[in-house]
Specification:
This protein has a domain of about 90 residues: Aldehyde Oxidoreductase, domain 3 (Alpha-Beta Complex). With about 140 residues, the protein is an alpha+beta fold.
C-alpha cells in the first residue's frame, strides 16, 4: 500500500464539505503523460491507499507480464477514526490510513505496451475497484 515516508503533521483538519468546490473539474493531471491508455475520474471522492492497491492488482493481473503501468495519484492525506463504542469527546481519533481527494477529470492510472482491447479491459477492471465513476481514455 502507498503511504508517505514522513509527514509534517500526523493529523489534518477535515476540510470544507462544499460540494461545488469538491466536484469542480480538476485542472492538473488531466492529460495522458506516459501511456497510451488511461483511467479518468468522472466523479469526486476520497480514494484510500487500499483501494488504489486493489485497482492496481486487478489491472496488472489482467495485463500479465507485458505492458507497463503508472499510478498518477499518491495518497498523502491522513484520515482518523475513533474506536468502536467510544463516547463523544476526548479528542480526535488516531490516524487510520491515507487518502487522495480525486476530482473529476483526473487521470488515475496509465497503461502502455499492450493491445487496445487488453488495455481497455484492464482499466475497466481497475475502475470497478474504486469508489468513483471512471472512463477509459486513449491517446489521440
Amino acid at each position: 500500500m502507498l503511504f508517505p515516508k514522513k509527514v509534517q503533521h500526523r493529523k489534518w483538519q477535515t476540510g470544507r464539505k462544499n460540494p461545488a468546490k469538491f466536484t469542480r473539474p480538476e485542472t492538473r493531471g488531466v492529460t495522458l503523460s506516459f501511456g497510451s491508455h488511461g483511467l479518468k475520474a468522472t466523479t469526486a471522492k476520497r480514494v484510500t491507499s487500499n483501494q488504489i492497491e486493489a485497482a492496481r492488482r486487478a489491472m496488472s493481473r489482467y495485463m500479465g507480464k507485458t505492458g507497463r503501468s503508472w499510478i498518477r495519484i499518491f495518497p498523502d492525506r491522513p484520515f482518523t477514526k475513533k474506536p468502536a463504542e467510544v463516547k463523544m469527546g476526548k479528542g480526535k481519533g488516531d490516524p487510520q490510513g491515507y487518502v487522495f481527494e480525486v476530482r473529476p477529470g483526473r487521470i488515475i492510472f496509465e497503461i502502455d505496451g499492450v493491445a487496445d482491447t487488453v488495455a481497455r479491459e484492464a482499466l475497466r477492471k481497475a475502475g470497478t475497484k474504486l469508489p468513483i465513476k471512471t472512463k477509459v481514455v486513449a491517446r489521440d
